[in-house]
Every structure is written in structure tokens, then in C-alpha cells.
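Q: I'm a student working through a structural biology exercise. My instructor gave each of us a protein and asked us to get a predicted structure, then write a short paragraph describing it. Mine is Amidase. I'm not confident about reading structure output yet, so if you can add a plain explanation after the C-alpha cells, that would really help. Here is the sequence I was given:
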Amino acid sequence: MEWSFHAAEELVAALRAGAVTSVELTDEAIARIERDDEVVNAICVPDFDRARAAAHRADLARARGEDRPLLGVPVTVKESYDVAGLPTTWGMPPHRDHVLAEDAVQVSRLKAAGAVVLGKTNVPLGLQDIQSFNEIYGTTNNPWDHARTPGGSSGGSAAALASGFGALSIGSDIAGSLRTPAHFCGVYAHKPTLGLAANRGMVAPSEPALPVDLDLAVVGPMARTARDLALLLDVMAGPDPLTLGKAHRLALPPARHDRLRDFRVLVLDDHPLIPTGSAVRAAVDRVADALADGGARVERHSPLLPDLTEAATLYMQLLVSGSVARFPMESHEELLTRIAGLAADDHSLDTARLRALVFSHRDWIEANNRRELHRHGWRRLFAEFDAVVCPITPTPAFPHDHHPNPMERRIAVDGAEHPYFDQLVWAGLATMPGLPATAVPAGRSPEGLPVGVQLIGPVFEDRTPLRLAELLEREIGGFQAPK
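A: Happy to help. First, here is the predicted structure for Amidase. I'll explain a few features afterward.
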């Protein structure tokens, strides 16, 4: 029997029943990677010897009567996480030999839960792209179409899951980096509420692994089923034991509802700053129809929805001003000269991104204050709705585009070109206010590419979109392996 595409939940049940061993699961996963990954290039740092040893220890532990949530289940880890004995480079050539002596807190939690780490998955340079390629490890291809990207920055993890390389993976998200690869590869991902899951050890190799509170960025689970997302989130969630964990204990509220007909859902498919492609619009409609058919209350408009244009602008300001502090693009003086030539009435996202490159602390505080108003708006909206369904990006996976200047790239939406980074506005809708969002498969494009949508939920009510994802999986189907 082949196990490679079984859910983690099913593998745990089979391991408990003695129907398979961890060594058998691990050997099968490694054989599949060695056979298929030459063309996908998802696993950039294999760790097979230690994986086999961990699988053997898991089987011995189970024989002694031990039982942990992921005991013996093969998984992968995004390259950006520290794993003791392996390099963490973030795809940056100067750090190709940066080998860590300590696991990231989430890797420690995986191992404590009994998971078997097969290796690390590929990322873009500095985690700064919607694709996954770098000079150290090369390009990761979409398992559905090797000429297309699997997304980024957790593209290697999504491609690994779609290819059957392990049952689960952990990634991170600041600009859709969990959700976009899931959407492009036809798998599931969950962007937790900001601050829900500790991030120590998921840090650029030039920085120390400290228990800092990140702005916008989160770490989160990826899987091939909605229930597996919830299983892995239970392992990942919780404060860092070095800081908030000293006093705080995790107590996530249950999902608001257990039945589809009890959900109140706002469905969005139009954004004022970029059109939604026909394939994605069809996927949103498919989910809306399934909700309505299941008896959920579905609305297409609400005066409670925060302004989408301002939300996208704030997101770009916060994202870019934070990113440039870590990864400078060009001299401050040159940027000031370029910005001085901009028209005062130019409010495009390109201009917002450029101006954010030279944000002062006062500028950031003003943007953050406006963000708090949006957060309050979302609290009011979620008093009337339980979830928001909307796109993740305007298109399915796009062809590889390695133009050296990402600001000059373009994304084609039904034949019309738009600035490359404008496609982030939908991902930013949940990221800017720090809301949880679950990416779910929602069918195929006319070309046969996966298309997903995101389910945005109330702050710290992560179980609500996760439960809705599980109910939708029953109605519209879920993961399918690439042909």
C-alpha cells in the first residue's frame, strides 16, 4: 500500500493500529523524493540519514507505549527555519555555510510531537518573492506545470506537499507566503492570528534567534487536508516559553459553529486596485454556491467592510518600510531624489511602495494608528459575520519570471498587465490587521491549474475558518494529486 498522499491524521491512525511503521513511511517518502524531486526541486536540504534514525526511534517509542500527536509522521520544514546541524540561508549566497546548532522553537515542537523531519524546502532570495528560486538551490517548479511557479516564499513546502513528499510542512507568511503557494499548488495552509505561534528561530541568518514580536509576519501550518491543518496548528500554537509563555497559557476559543448552515459569510471577489481573473472569480463563486447550498447566510456586500483601497495602501506601507530596514535596496539619497519627482496626487500602489522605502518612524506610527482603526472595523464586521471568503491572488500560478528587478515585473490578469506586487492586495487584507486566514483548494482553472480561496476569520478565533474549511472540503472536495 502506498502512503505518500494519505493525510497525517490517517497516518497517525495507521501507526497506532500497527498497520505501518514510521520507518516504512519514511523510506517511502525518501524514495519518492529521490525519484520525483529532480524536476520539482522542492527539497533543497535533504536530511535523510537523520530522518531514518528519527523514524526508528519513533517506532521504538510506540513499542514502549508512547503516543504523541505526530509520532512517526514524515514532515518537511521551510528552509528559513533553523534546524540544528543544517544550513539556514534564506537563499542568500553569503550565508550558504550558515549552519545552526539549535532548532527553531517550531522545529522543537515538531520533534517533541514525534514528527520525522525529512529535510528543508526551497525559498526565494531573502523570502522576498512570490516565487521560490535562488542562486544556492535553484528554482522550484509547480508540480502541476513545471513551467510555472509554486509560489513563494513557502513554495518549496507547497510543492513538496502536492508531490507527496511528507504529510505536513511548516512555513511562514508576511505577504501571502503560506496562502499563495497553497493556492498555486492545490493544498491547504493557515496563516494564524498575528502572535499566536512563536517564531523564534525563523530568522534571517544575519540576525540572532531571539523571541521577538514580529510585525505582519507569522509562522503557520501547511497540509493536504483541513483537519491536518488544525492538527498541526495545535502543535505550533502558543507563546514563546522565554517571554509570554512565562505567564500566558493558550486557550483558543472553539469554532463559532459546527454546521455549514449556521455560518454567516461575506463573499468578496472585486478589488478596487486590481481585477480578479476569471479563473479565480469562478473559484470564489464555486465556494459561495457551496455555502449557500449548505444553508449558510451568504452576503456579497457590507457597509461594515473596511475600505479596501486604504487597507491595501496601509499594508504596502507597513510591509515595505519593514522589509527595507532588513534588506536595503539602494541609497537613501537616491530614493529621496526619485520620490521628489513623484506627483503629489499619485496614489498608486507603486508610489505607495516607493514612498514607504524612506518612511520615518513618525510615518510608520501614523500608518500603524490607521491600522488600529481598521482592526476596530474588522471587530465590528465579525460581530455580524463569521468569515470572509475572498481571493488569495488574482490568478492561478503564473509562469516563472526571473527578471532581476521585481519592481519591473508584471502580472497578467486575463491578458491585461499590472504591477507585479499589486497582486499582494488580497493577501494583505488579512495580514495588515493580523487576522487568521485559511487557504483552501476550490477547483481548477480551464488550463487545469489549482485555484484556491482564503477564509478570513476573527482575531484569535482561528478555529472558525479552520472548521469552515473542513466543512467546505466535504462540499467541494479538497486536495487532488497532480496528474
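A: Here are two points you could use in your paragraph. Residues 361-384 form the longest helix (24 residues). The chain has 14 helices and 15 strands. It's a good idea to check both against the output above yourself.
Q: Great, thank you!
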